[in-house]
Amino acid sequence: MKIIKILFAIQFISLSLFATDYYCDPVNGNMNYNGLSSKTAWKSLEDVFARSKKFSAGDVIYLMNGAHGRPYITGSNSDYVTIKALPNHNPKLAGIQFGKGSYWAFDGLTFTADGSGGDNFKSTFIQSNTDNTHLVITNSVFYMAEDSSNWTFNDWYTYTKNKSIFALSVRGNYFKFNNNIIKNVYFGLSILGDNIEIKNNLIDNFAGDAMQLQNSDNVLIENNIIKDAYIQDYNIQHDDAIQLMGVASPMNNVVVRNNTIYNFSDEITQSMIDDNLVGYSMQGIILTDGKITNSVIENNLVVLDTYHGITINSSDKCRIQNNTIARTPNKVNTENVYPWITFYGGKGGLHTNGVVRNNIAYQYSIASGNLDQNNISISESSLNNNFTDYSSFDFTLKEDSYAIDTGLNTDISEFDLAGNNRLFNTTVDCGAYEYFAEENIIVTEFDKVIKSSNNDGMVYDNSVSDKNNPYITDLAQASDGSGGEGMKLGSVDLGSGTTPVSIILPFQLPEIPNGNIVEKAELNIYVYYGRTYANTNIDLYGLPYSRVSNISSDMHYAGDFSFEEGDNTGIEDNYFAKNVTNGNFDTARNEASVKSKDLANYINAQYLAGAQAGDWVFLRLSPDNIDMNAYHYFMVKSRDDENKAPTLSMSLVKQELMGIDDSEVNKLQVYPNPVFSQNNTVNIKLNNNSNSFVNVNLYSTSGALVYSGETKLQNGKATIDLGSRISTANYILRIFNNKVNLVHRIIVQ
User: Fold this and answer.
1) What is the DSSP string of 339-352?
2) Shortest CA distance to 230 belongs to which of 200, 211, 205?
3) pLDDT tens for each residue of 217-270
């Protein structure tokens, strides 16, 4: 293993050493330039490939504002060549046509047919043939027109159907399509190939199929939102959210998980109904042609106005589990339809070795010889009794839903559709959501109480004691009459004049049980002395965690309070101050932090940033007035006083703190990503239709909390202004309330 790691590191370093950045500027560029800077940029991406420019693995081609046309891209690379938007730019393309090629990645681009990307748009934005492999498309937008709100039925035919508009038609293996938006097109994705990943995308406003996959093996379709099927024309083209076709050969090893599908969630007017604009016959997850094997369909919410919620007509060794199938609250179909799960032979199909388990639907058809386990049938009259807010598309479970604790604990996933633990109590719930009761979020009063380290307050290297460095002394007579050893805090003469000093308290992190986070935290200290003319307030900061408890001189600070002071997190302004009038000695007392949520957020951030049990966090007490007279200080008891030593108390709550690797992000879309530092606004979309409040925290990768706020979701969406203090860097974004706790890496450029 060590040899493999070393070889991998050498390969990575070699790749980065020889990689080159190139720039394309359709407005001011010139193909006679070298393309190596924004000042010497080439012209459009289409011009670059028309000149047959060659690239190497690891190269990045940055696109600047303007129309980049429809390049014809060929070339097989040994690793990815990336084509991406230059920060603060919004390049547009009419499309891309692939010849034979491999290892191409596209990030942060806009594909449009409105002319702003070029006037050479064809019927498909991205078209690839069967000779392509290893294509990656992320953080990009595809649309026929940016706004279709005023389109009529005939407009949809004119602009999309008659031109057979596809966002992408990909024929090739190893294709990834993640964190993208497709809107106002006829078809979304048409894929034929193996090893396909389609995650965290939004497909909104379409008129044909949102996704088609044919004869594909090893497919992951996860965390996508598909909604708003326009134009009702079932006799010509039935619309499907996810259509699977295993005709030439059975599709094998397909996972369709954690997707949210609404046939129509936008407001519906009578004029839209009269104009047949609402595609109420859209079907959900369906395989009517061919066969599928060794596959799983789980944790999906399918809300529609027709019968086919999940329909599989031929299969072997497949499992349909924990899905919720319901009729849409926005009913347009005048027929009394009751959405189903069908696992029954159609078109001559057979089902063998299959399982249908823990689902919620109106009706089921399950072929004999397959397991029918713990499925729940609902009716129109039971919708409001089982779902939190059926009319507002909130299909989480009510506390008295008969789907709670009625499932079977076999083959269950780790998380439900909302990101909660799939198994909350001893028995799993049926449907896509696990019931997560607020009364079960019980905060135990300080599960963990930790005393400060023997290293408290002291710089490890005594040779730098002339720096901003406190020390421990034995005060003979203190305010409480006890005297004793303690740490000086405030203004102290260290031999070369008056120096304001801070105190740093190391605490060793405890083991946090799986499924728990820190709900609140409190720092307790004992202040047993304050000089008569001490004239400063004391602020509380959190510092980045460390594997060791050593304190260095550069960790100390004195000055005005700031929520972000370097890599440090401002936790509480004016944590304590002199408690008597000027000219008197302080009254000895305990001081406790009141910003329990902010302190808890700081501690959680350290775990998010990689801290583990046994690592050290550091809380600093800092004087905010640096213009103090000598010897005007406070005294705080040290670790050596067992009865009055500083303590950090934490209470834990049962809530899963999910990983920050983008490959593990569950049901949270963040866009744009990278975020442009010129405005520092970011959009979030949760994979539900919630209108609830969520807390928003942004951490540096060292664990510093640089932004904290609250926002109201509208149909699961919100725009967040991160403020002017956010600089160019990598960050960790956390979105949480009592039901969700999601994290995502973002980049600010």
Assistant:
1) -EEEES--TT--EE
2) 205
3) 999 999 899 999 998 876 556 689 999 998 888 999 999 999 999 999 888 889
Would you call 474 helix, strand, or coil by DSSP?
A: strand
Q: Class of the 662-748 domain? A: mainly beta
Q: Provide the percentage of residues in the chain whose pLDDT is more than 90.
A: 42
Contact between 157 and 115 under an 8 Å Cβ cutoff? The reply is: no
Lowest mean pLDDT among 368-382, 597-611, 653-667: 653-667
- Distances in whole angstroms, Cα of residue 607 to Cα of each of 40, 41, 436, 603, 662: 44, 43, 24, 7, 17
Tokens of 501: 């000093």
Whole-angstrom Cα distance, residue 379 to residue 357?
Answer: 18
CA–CA distance, 631 with 646 (Å, rounded to integer):
23
pLDDT band at 41 (very low <50, low <70, confident <90, very high): very high
Residues 108 and 140 sit within 8 Å (Cβ to Cβ):
yes
Task: Give the number of other Cβ atoms within 10 Å of residue 55's Cβ.
Answer: 19
Range with lowest mean pLDDT among 217-221, 286-290, 421-425, 690-694: 690-694
pLDDT value, residue 465: 47
Does the pLDDT at position 496 exceed 60? Answer: no
Distance CA 279, CA 264 (A): 8
Encode burial over 635-664: b for 16+ CB neighbours within 10 A, e otherwise: bbbbbebeebbbbbbbbbbbbbbbebebee
CA–CA distances in Å: residue 237 to residues 61, 208, 262, 263: 40, 7, 18, 15
Mean per-residue pLDDT for 44-64? 95
Who wins on pLDDT, 591 or 492? 591
Please say whether the beta carbons of 229 and 332 come within 8 A.
no
Mean pLDDT of the chain: 83
Contact yes or no for 509/616 (Cβ under 8 A):
yes
Where do runs of H (alpha helix) occur along 213-341?
A: 270-274
Reading the block at residue 525, the tokens are: 């200290």
Domain range list for the chain: 17-152+162-203, 208-213+222-441, 448-654, 662-748
What is the side-by-side order of every strand in the sheet holding 717-721?
Answer: 668-671, 681-686, 717-721
Report helix, strand or coil for 75: strand
Question: Which residues touch 663 (CB under 8 Å, ≥6 apart)?
Answer: none
DSSP string for residues in 558-578: -SS--SEETTEEEEEEEEE--
Distances 239 to 175, 207, 279, 533 between C-alpha atoms, Å = 24, 7, 8, 78
From the candidate CATH numbers 3.30.450, 1.10.4030, 2.60.120, 1.10.600, the one assigned to the domain spanning 448-654:
2.60.120
- CA–CA separation, 189 vs 209, rounded Å? 8
CB neighbourhood size of 119 (10 A): 11
**70-76 average pLDDT score:** 95
Pairwise CA distance, residues 690 & 240, whole Å:
24
Model's pTM, two decimal places? 0.63
